[in-house]
């Protein structure tokens, strides 16, 4: 274990505009203040570089998620708390990432940011729901593309029913309970 504590991957899965990135950044701030080494692998940033050229069909999403899982495990195995606010809509793809971590003996938790699609589409941070409704975009997760809800996530957050700080605190408490801090 490094002097900054144990590494672990914290994957936040959920629909676009569910609050994955906002909660991840709040938790990242808290963990950094506590002296942990932290990285956030944000879906949008990864798609600019590591996954440049990939689209939103099933195969490309799976490739994207496996690449991110690979990098996350590497970082986490070196003592970093790696926060991953990435949709990851397919259960088998998420399971493969969990197995990669298990095989390496690296901590891993899956958080379902379970904001209902009605709330997400009202927030519509990037205007994707409006575009889909206007017929300018197809294949939007949770609307006309699948989102396979985690059946047994390590934690499910009703993120629309509590504050960002409360959600971040809930994940923090889970990490403490699992001995991952
Ligand atoms: N068709 C479609 N479906 C879903 N999401 C879309 C789409 N087109 C663009 N976007 C935006 O892409 C952002 C990153 O997606 P991810 O890499 O997290 O998705 S995936 O796990 O590969 O499915 C994702 O970011 P978040 O809103 O932060 O979830 C979306 O804003
Ligand atoms: N209780 C809440 N929890 C998380 N996000 C919230 C909450 N209430 C409002 N929001 C807002 O919802 C939006 C969620 O966007 P974002 O975090 O980018 O979602 P995602 O990464 O899942 O696409 C942000 O603008 C955030 O400020």
Automatic annotation (TrEMBL):
<feature type="binding site">
    <location>
        <begin position="14"/>
        <end position="21"/>
    </location>
    <ligand>
        <name>ATP</name>
    </ligand>
</feature>
<dbReference type="InterPro" id="IPR002891">
    <property type="entry name" value="APS"/>
</dbReference>
<dbReference type="Pfam" id="PF01583">
    <property type="entry name" value="APS_kinase"/>
</dbReference>
<comment type="function">
    <text>Catalyzes the synthesis of activated sulfate.</text>
</comment>
<dbReference type="GO" id="GO:0004020">
    <property type="term" value="F:adenylylsulfate kinase activity"/>
</dbReference>
<keyword id="KW-0418">Kinase</keyword>
<dbReference type="InterPro" id="IPR050512">
    <property type="entry name" value="Sulf_AdTrans/APS_kinase"/>
</dbReference>
<dbReference type="InterPro" id="IPR027417">
    <property type="entry name" value="P-loop_NTPase"/>
</dbReference>
<comment type="similarity">
    <text>Belongs to the APS kinase family.</text>
</comment>
<comment type="pathway">
    <text>Sulfur metabolism; hydrogen sulfide biosynthesis; sulfite from sulfate: step 2/3.</text>
</comment>
<feature type="domain" description="APS kinase">
    <location>
        <begin position="6"/>
        <end position="157"/>
    </location>
</feature>
<keyword id="KW-0597">Phosphoprotein</keyword>
<dbReference type="InterPro" id="IPR059117">
    <property type="entry name" value="APS_kinase_dom"/>
</dbReference>
<protein>
    <recommendedName>
        <fullName>Adenylyl-sulfate kinase</fullName>
        <ecNumber>2.7.1.25</ecNumber>
    </recommendedName>
</protein>
<keyword id="KW-0067">ATP-binding</keyword>
<keyword id="KW-0808">Transferase</keyword>
<keyword id="KW-0547">Nucleotide-binding</keyword>
